[in-house]
Design brief:
Layout lengths: L2 E5 L2 E4 L4 E8 L6 E8 L6 E6 L6 E3 L7 E5 L5 E6 L8 E9 L17 E2 L3 E6 L1
């Protein structure tokens, strides 16, 4: 059974930091891009960041570039999203997503195809002004 379990969300003041974690288990192969997408109240989902299955590529949506950093453990069991200089507009539920790259890249430097295969239940990030 594939499981993606997010943690690390919470309430933080603008300018603060949080680190989200995604514990990944049960994937049938290593050929999955792992990333984060978010959904704010009343807004559409947005791909935030991802790392490709071979670690060769990372993606960041424009609004988080220079503030967020994605990384993962060497055994690929946990993916992190370090979020610095948080803004109220970063408030959202953040979901971890695993997307198969067998037919093509789900994560490149310029695009992120998320939410196609597996995702977690999400963790809420609230940034107060």
């Amino acid at each position: 059974e594939v499981q993606l379990v997010e943690s690390g969300g919470g309430l933080v003041q603008a300018g603060g930091s949080l680190r989200l974690s995604c514990a990944v288990s049960g994937l049938p192969s290593d050929n999955y891009a792992i990333g984060w997408f978010r959904q704010a109240p009343g807004k559409e989902r947005e791909g935030v960041s991802c790392i490709s299955s071979n670690d060769a590529a990372t993606y960041y949506t424009n609004s988080v570039k220079g503030r967020f950093t994605i990384s993962r453990d060497n055994d690929k069991s946990t993916v992190y999203l370090q979020m610095d200089s948080l803004r109220p507009e970063d408030t959202a539920v953040y979901y971890c997503s695993a997307d198969w790259e067998g037919y093509g890249s789900a994560c490149t430097g310029t695009q992120y195809h998320y939410g196609m295969d597996h995702w977690g239940k999400g963790t809420l990030v609230t940034v107060s002004s």
